[in-house]
């Protein structure tokens, strides 16, 4: 399947986003032709061609219903969330300063600032940059103008996430979110002694998650594989550092300096707020992609993929997290990861109403709908991290036999 054929199978809005992005980086969306990747397509065992296209049409109808009903209520929602986030940011920073003389205020300030950073990254930045609110035609809340509170530049994130990840979800060799270049998260990834560090690298990725996201588009894993970087990666690193420098100066120099001799308590408060955001973002994102049952695919398995089977792959590679309204809000509604991957450009506040319809459709076609509590999903993620640090027993026996 050619690049243009692969893109044409995508839902319209995502197809337009990919086409716009690939004008800048067309080489990143090449896929092997059927002749180059002859292999059984495992997805075909899930649904017949007829059912797969009927499944896709049913999902299209759900999407069209939401698009037709978008309006003032949705616009009011995102504006309220932005107002809430900015209030938490301002209040949190003020409380951190107040904590200089009243320690309980410092704790409250860290929690408020951390919550503001979570909201800005998850429910606002992530979703605005997906184009979920572009229909409002508000230049202040638009995917082309939004720059988020994160060390990763918006343009680099939109390439790695909107184009690569959402087009090639869970396809090894195409979606670098599978392991983020440092982890083994599927048995389809060939084991290497380096992966013995899976638990250590996973912990570091969680703690410094915004930096992992920032470096993702630069493909630093090239250094481990080839010992060098491509010229375009060097250019991206320069762009990332320009953005990261502003973030570092804001959180770790400017705001602490305003406290004068109390520089360190404010610095510590900002650092803890960023850590709070990093750990929460990591957990939500990993719980949406890597719990038990989330599937990973090879390029050979998606040869000839149609629009209906693209939808099927999004379903099989994503997982929901069960919880209340607060949890959904603080996750950026990525607790509805299945719905987000099916409809990445729909307003996030509508995923809750879409989810029962998607679940019912899965039941109708006998398809799995991977959903569980945060504890259940995260527990299985951690189990995978530790399990896949070791080689598969079949591979290990083969290596031992070769030495025998």
What does this structure look like?
The protein is an all-alpha fold. Among the domains are: 71-148; 150-303 and 371-404, no CATH class. It has helices at residues 3-8, 12-22, 49-69, 72-98, 103-129, 154-167, 198-207, 209-216, 221-226, 231-257, 263-289, 307-316, 325-330, 337-342, 351-365, 374-387, 393-403, and strands at residues 320-322, 371-373. Strands 1-2 form a two-stranded parallel sheet. Helix 4 (72-98) runs antiparallel to helix 5 (103-129). It is globular and about 65 Å long.
Order of helices and strands: HHHHHHHHHHHHEHHHEHH
The oligomeric state is: single chain
* Termini Cα gap: 43 Å
Secondary-structure content class? mainly alpha
Described by the principal axes of the CA atoms, the overall outline is: globular
Q: What is the spatial order of strands in the main beta sheet?
A: 1-2
Mean pLDDT: 89
What's the alpha carbon Rg, rounded to whole Å?
22 Å
Question: What is the total tally of β strands?
Answer: 2
Q: Characterize the biggest β-sheet.
A: 2 strands, parallel
What fraction of residues sit in β-strands?
Answer: under 5%
Quick recap of the structure?
The chain is mainly alpha-helical and 404 residues long.
Features:
404 residues; 17 helices; globular
Layout: helices, strands, pairs:
Elements: H1 3-8, H2 12-22, H3 49-69, H4 72-98, H5 103-129, H6 154-167, H7 198-207, H8 209-216, H9 221-226, H10 231-257, H11 263-289, H12 307-316, E1 320-322, H13 325-330, H14 337-342, H15 351-365, E2 371-373, H16 374-387, H17 393-403
Parallel strand pairs: 1-2
């Amino acid at each position: 399947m050619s690049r243009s054929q692969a893109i044409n199978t995508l839902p319209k809005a995502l197809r337009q986003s990919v086409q716009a992005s690939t004008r800048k980086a067309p080489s990143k969306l090449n896929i092997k032709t059927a002749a180059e990747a002859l292999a059984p397509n495992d997805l075909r065992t899930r649904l017949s061609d007829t059912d797969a296209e009927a499944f896709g049409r049913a999902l299209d109808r759900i999407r069209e219903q939401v698009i037709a009903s978008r309006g003032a209520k949705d616009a009011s929602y995102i504006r309220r969330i932005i107002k809430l986030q900015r209030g938490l940011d301002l209040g949190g920073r003020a409380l951190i300063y107040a904590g200089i003389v009243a320690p309980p205020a410092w704790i409250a300030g860290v929690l408020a600032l951390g919550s503001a950073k979570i909201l800005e990254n998850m429910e606002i930045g992530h979703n605005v940059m997906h184009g979920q609110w572009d229909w409002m035609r508000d230049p202040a809340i638009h995917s082309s103008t939004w720059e988020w509170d994160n060390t990763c530049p918006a343009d680099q994130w939109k390439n790695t996430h909107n184009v690569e990840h959402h087009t090639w979800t869970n396809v090894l060799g195409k979606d670098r979110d599978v392991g983020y270049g440092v982890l083994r998260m599927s048995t389809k990834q060939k084991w290497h002694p380096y992966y013995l560090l899976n638990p250590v690298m996973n912990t570091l990725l969680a703690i410094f998650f915004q930096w992992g996201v920032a470096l993702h588009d630069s493909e630093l894993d090239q250094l481990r594989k080839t010992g060098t970087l491509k010229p375009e990666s060097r250019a991206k690193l320069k762009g990332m550092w320009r953005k990261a420098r502003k973030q570092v100066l804001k959180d770790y120099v400017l705001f602490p300096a305003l406290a004068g001799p109390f520089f360190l308590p404010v610095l510590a408060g900002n650092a803890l707020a960023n850590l709070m955001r990093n750990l929460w973002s990591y957990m939500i994102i990993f719980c949406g992609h890597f719990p038990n049952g989330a599937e990973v695919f090879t390029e050979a398995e998606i040869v000839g993929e149609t629009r209906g089977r693209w939808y099927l792959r999004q379903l099989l590679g994503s997982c929901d997290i069960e919880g209340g309204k607060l949890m959904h809000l603080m996750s950026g509604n990525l607790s509805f990861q299945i719905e987000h991957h099916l409809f990445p450009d729909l307003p996030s506040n509508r995923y809750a109403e879409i989810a029962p319809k998607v679940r019912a459709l899965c039941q109708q076609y006998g398809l799995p709908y991977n959903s569980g509590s945060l504890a259940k999903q995260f527990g299985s993620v951690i189990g995978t991290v530790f399990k896949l640090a070791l080689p598969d027993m079949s591979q290990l026996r083969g290596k031992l036999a070769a030495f025998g």
